[in-house]
Amino acid sequence: MEFQKSQRLNHLKYDIRGPVYEKAQELESQGYKVINLNIGNPAPFGFDAPDEIVHDIIMNIRNAQGYSDSRGLFAARKAVMHYTQTQGIPNVEINDIFIGNGVSELILLSMQALLDTGDEILVPSPDYPLWTTSIALSGGKPVHYICDEAADWNPDLDDLESKITPRTKGIVLINPNNPTGAVYEKDVVERIARLAEAHGLIIFSDEIYDRILYDGAVHYPIATMVEETLCVTFGGLSKNYRAAGFRGGWMIVSGAKHRAKSYLEGLLLLASLRLCANVPTQYAIQTALGGYQSIKDLVLPTGRLHKQMNLIYDRLVSIPGISCVKPKGALYLFPKIDLTAFDFKDDGDFVYDLLSEQKVLVVAGTGFNYIHNDHFRIVFLPTADELNQAMDRIENFLESRRLV
Ligand code: PLP
């Protein structure tokens, strides 16, 4: 008898590490050198975590042998609380902060603690796909609202509002955005806050890239703009601090907490069931959040991250048939392919054939629950040399498939 996976997993996917990724690994095991532009994992590409974070973990490893409080170490939560004060997020107390094994764990936990079968959550399209998956895995229904490429990928607020139903419980915002690189305008964030307030919805704001901003972009935390709305904000060490492997993230509950006693109990129950987040990493959170922020140097026009973003952007938009909105934040570009100009069917074919023929791995736009099948996501973390090599291969591939 075949052992079947749970039916709850049917239709769930995570294409960033999905079948095409497996194929890339197979190619590597056959001796091919694949250029991996699929994962936002800074450290392996020479974007090392700040020394003081690594130092903190090493120095505290002996103190970190036991479990911690389920919400997290007091000092780590105190540091996150202080961060909310510097950002202007009102009404956050120490027990409103939960430390997790990365934001990933907390996203799933926040949905599992809330959703009953059929409850709806509004999620951006495209999204970071863990959001859609976590909602579905928790018995809820992800309902996608459009982010508009023509408006620099800002959410289409009419579409968002039209999708609110009596079953809608919350709105997910990813700002700065993965995969589009959008950083939402102040007015847009304000209007989403007002919509949530008017319809009594919880806001889930994934702000893991809040310090990775280019060309003077400003990030507006939505939690500073709400009063009578419950807001859950997510942040962590993986991107701003290039420490993705340490698995450290936090979740901040703010706003209308007086209407969320039961939900907060649910969050604590689930946090307790998994005992605690890994403790060594928690020791680094205080250091990470305070003082000098080395990410700022990387995102300056002279910084390596910024220069590499420009490199990929300039090379992509110089290819006839490819267009792209320039990212204002995060680690990705989300270019559009004019499917009438090339001999492949859709984004999935493009990604698969590019990998097979040129050994470059990117992720199809539909892997981010994007409604159209003509985009892909590309990461700009490898060295400029490697990125140029990857772009040469992408150009060769596209030329070999050009129709007009
Ligand atoms: N949220 C977004 C928007 C992400 O892009 C990622 C990782 O790529 C995560 C959450 C997960 O981060 P973590 O490493 O903290 O689990």
From TrEMBL:
Species: Salmonirosea aquatica
Homology family: Belongs to the class-I pyridoxal-phosphate-dependent aminotransferase family.
InterPro entries recorded: Ala_Aminotransferase, Aminotransferase_I/II_large, PyrdxlP-dep_Trfase, PyrdxlP-dep_Trfase_major, PyrdxlP-dep_Trfase_small
Keyword annotations of the record: Aminotransferase, Pyridoxal phosphate, Transferase
Annotated GO MF terms: L-alanine:2-oxoglutarate aminotransferase activity; pyridoxal phosphate binding
Pfam families named among the record's database cross-references: Aminotran_1_2
Domain (Aminotransferase class I/classII large): residue spans on this chain: 33-394
Top EC class, one word: transferase
Protein name in UniProt: alanine transaminase
Cofactor names: pyridoxal 5'-phosphate
Top-rank taxon, per record: Bacteria
EC number: 2.6.1.2
Coiled coil spans: none
